[in-house]
Amino acid sequence: MEPDHGETWAYESIIGALPGIDLSPGGAIAIQLAVFEVAVLGLGWYYDLRTAAVAGTAAVVVAALGSAEMLRISAAARQPETPEPYRRLLFGSSIEVVLSVLAFVALVTHLFVFDLGSPEPLVDTLFGSEPPTLAVYLMLLILWDLCYRIGTGWWASIVGLWRSIRYRFDARTAAVLRRADREAVVFGLLQLPLLPFLTGQPVLFAALAAHVAAVLVVSGSSLVLLRRREY
Fold first, then answer.
1. Partner residues linked to 230 by β-bridges
2. What number of other Cβ atoms are within 10 A of residue 24's Cβ?
3. pTM attached to this predicted model
4. pLDDT tens, 51-95?
5. Is residue 1 part of a domain?
6. In sequence order, which residues have a C-beta less than 8 Å from that of residue 45 and are 6 or more positions away?
7. Is residue 123 part of a domain?
């Protein structure tokens, strides 16, 4: 089903608004992956930042897989049989952008204020004592990409639980919505490959692990409620 105006996330709207370009979802994700990975490997080679290149590659892959999950969630959520208030709240409110900005600002504050007083600041670990400007710029761009997907994951899970509490569904609609909730669970689990890169960062490790756990609890609760609310 093609998305209607106002029934897309910001990520989908940007892709659809590119002038003179008609990209399939798979093509857009492939370009995203290729552009970011070439940049990561190129800067990693130029500045001899092997650790940063490995961590950056993991982040780029997670972001690309997250893009695919966003599209799968939205495709299920905007099926015509799903409640219109659910679709409007999920896509039209842009709350996922607000959550993403809050997460990104908190992350930047941690990296460049709180973490600088630790024995092994993450920025120094990745880039050395004199971080290259271009490498830091790319890092922040990729981190925003990840924060946007984390914010979207939060919102998809929260709205899914609200929908399951608020409405009752026939078997067909419940099956569609279960698919959306299962994709939200997968969306959260996709962040787990980043945890090994944060073992020396207890605050970031705990924050990411808590995010994944929260998504599992909220979306899992929505799935249980869907079983009970089905008629």
1. 169
2. 9
3. 0.89
4. 999 999 999 999 999 999 998 998 899 888 899 999 989 988 889
5. no
6. 53
7. yes
- Give the containing element (helix H, strand E) for 14: helix 10-17
Q: What does the alpha-carbon distance between residue 74 and residue 19 come to, in Å, rounded to a whole number?
A: 23
Expressed as residue numbers, the domain containing 92 is 10-229
Give the C-alpha separation, 69 to 179, whole Å.
11
3 to 14, 175, 196, 200: CA distances (angstroms):
13, 20, 37, 42
Residue 161 lies in a domain: yes
Cα separation, 129 vs 32, whole angstroms? 30
Indicate whether 2 belongs to any domain: no
Q: Supply the DSSP string of 137-191, one letter for each residue.
A: HHHHHHHHHHHHHHHHHHHHHHHHHHHHHH--B-HHHHHHHHHHHHHHHHHHHTT
